[in-house]
Amino acid sequence: MLLAFYRHLKEQSYYFKVILNRGYELDIMELFSDIVQEAMGQVVDVQQAIDGVPAEIHWRYSIAAHFSVASGWLQNDFPYTPEFMAEAVLKLTKEGKHYAIL
């Protein structure tokens, strides 16, 4: 699913860049969240708490991370292949290596 997402993002990059550039006029994060939740709702229970963290907090954290990574990749003209991006994001997600750099 992630690989298909990154391939689609690259193939339709012109349109996604227009959307990102107009993001201040749109609630782009909510739109992204709705699209992903609709897709993921068929695969996982997006309402279930994970390790004691309420689903809403976990969901918003995950959406913000995925949105930021994907938009950075798009705005930097694809420095990595869609395959690499999908593998990297999946690795971070599956292995739980979410380290804050703050």
Automatic annotation (TrEMBL):
Q: Which domain of life is it from?
A: Bacteria
Q: Where is the Transcriptional regulator TetR C-terminal Firmicutes type domain?
A: 2-94
Q: Which Pfam families match?
A: TetR_C_8
Q: What is this protein called?
A: TetR-like C-terminal domain-containing protein
